[in-house]
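HUMAN: Can I see a protein plus its fold?

ASSISTANT:
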Amino acid sequence: MKRPTRLFSNLLLFFVFLLAFATPLFAQDTPTSDFTDNGDGTVTHQKTGLTWMRCSLGQTWTGTTCSGTAQTYSYYNAIQQTANFAGYSDWRLPNIAELQTIVERDNYYPAINTELFPNTPSDVFWSSSPYVGSASYAWFVYFSYGNVSGSIRDSAFPVRLVRASQSLGIGLASLTTDFTDNKDGTVTHQATCLMWQRCSVGQTWNGRTCSGSASTYAFDAAQRLTSPLAGYNDWRIPTASELARLVDYTKAYPGPTINTTLFPNTPRNAFWSSSPYVGDSGSAWGVDFSYGDVYSDSRNGAFPVRLVRASQCLVIGLKPDLATTLSASTDRVSLNQAMTYTATVTNTGKAPASNTSVLFYFPPRGTNYLSVPTDCVSDGVSYRCALGDVAAGASLTRAITVSYTRRGATNIGGLSITDSTESDDSNNLGEVITTITR
């Protein structure tokens, strides 16, 4: 694949009901539904637990958009940027693996979800990751198209800050301990539930390594590839975001920039993804495992392929485990006084949970709803709040503010899980009692 110029590959709560099912984290790019709008100029990616500033540094969040012009920094200045914003002081520059989680290759100019990140410059954005093998370069994402590569550190580019309070962040290498060896020529990534073939198409797993030579294909031919490996018939070409997740950014050219314990005898070459290059029907995205770059080439180019499938983590014992806490702003209020109830859902398991919902049940009489999140819908008895996906190790919250017109003490009931992927129902039970005085 050709490398672009500029050196880059260019409560009254009675019941909280949670529904969970394990799904891959990187099966798609950045649909708005995968993010929680925190209402303060930040959004939290439900699948990774990362919280992002909606605006580039130098811009100002107005409540609806990012105004002003993004400031640019050399790499040396970019990695020093921090902020006190939205009540947090642990903002930092994302590493290159984290920065790629907000690339949207269905868009270009800019290649980002502009509903989430309005007025984003179509420009290179610095990551915090040094370019191993060259002390004068560092990794970036080019948000005009979505290319990932390195540039000289003196270059001046915008930055966007992130915080990882709801997760451990994303590492620069695919650690062997992050994968389960299925002993059949496949490994399963615990964080994403994606099952990978250890060998490139054309090679053979002999129980220890990948023997033979990888075959090469034009893009269209690569999309038609299938495999019966390990008894599955749903193998496919990975998306660019999925494939890039295998890059080991701690390794240098000539590579291969991949974990060779997991994926032995990987060619030092570009690999096709399934992602078309938006804006040019004759090109498509690939990942170069001699450098680690993500960029495009003509669909006529001949490159190797590695297949993937969306595994159910349940098959290998990896499950979400949803624990919920319920809190009230106070345990005693007077009539017509505002009272806020907050439910916090934490996934303490080793697999992502999806389609998660919280149900708030309040007394049918005497309750006035003062503030309800926009994603909460009433069915006449309760408010159901859609949380979407909860990454392993991440937490999400919803809060409802009410007041009461009836005096007395009210019991706030429990939490329950009925979905088969939930591994422990007992930690989803809770109770709050509120006394309402005159």
